[in-house]
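User: Here's a protein and a ligand (zinc ion). What would the complex look like?
Assistant: Let me lay out the input and then the predicted complex.
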Amino acid sequence: MSNPFLDPPSDPAGPGDAPPCILCGSHRRTKVFEKQGYDFLRCGECSLVRLEPVPDEKTLAQVYESSYDDGAYRTFADAHQIRLAHAEARLDIVAPHASEGPWLDVGCSTGAFLDAASRRGIDIDGLDVSASAVETARGRGLNAFHAAAESFEPERRYAYITGFDVLEHVVDPGAFLDRIHGWLAPRGRIALTVPDIKSIHARLMGRHWYYYSPPLHITYFDRATATKMMESHGFYPIAIANAPKVMTIDYVTSQLATFNPWLYRAVSAVSGLVPATLRSRALPISTGEILVVASA
Ligand SMILES: [Zn+2]
């Protein structure tokens, strides 16, 4: 099977006017495919993949706010019970790596992870760019701040900062890592998840992979580029693992209807054969994401 992420491109010369790779500075960047009006450029040196053009902050702010209200994130926000089961599973993976002290969840959305952690007695704050998501989290009695990472000035230092599905969203991942590094207490740690473009899911689905999602997902990592990015900004990776999502088959199907209509048609045909009781049971499902834990 031909896969542009594995096979060398026939034309090794990248687009001449594209900016250099944000991770290694190389100008050897090659277009691997185009999706929804964005080019996906892969660095010929380090394999980091990034959108071109990079969407501007104003576009992203509009997409996020409208998507919470009436778009892609509606089913996401509604499915709090599933998110809570998922958050419990994430907590089981990240908690053993925590150091003593308060936590911050960056990109906390409507607060499922804050909720799960609080139930275990963890002192945790949340941060999100969406005003409506933060409002929902606060409505659940959780401590969430509404701010962008660039402007957030925490009132205290954190021992542990989690960021699930955040690094691929931010315009400047290096600047983001620098920011959160400054919010950590000495020897604090971070735990970040990112989609892995070298996962079996990405390899099999090619450009149809659900995480190839412009303009929301801007930078696309694998294990090597994710750890290199952290190392370049003052972190020492200490653990890396697959990060399954806990979901129901019904939830997966509804998400695909929004994010990947092509795959939705295939999956809904199969899921119709699965008994309803199984379709609504929460299961850990591998989606091609990895978790990286790193120390400051
Ligand atoms: Zn590079």
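Summary: Residues 21, 23-24, 26, 43, 45-46, 48 surround zinc ion (CB under 6 Å).
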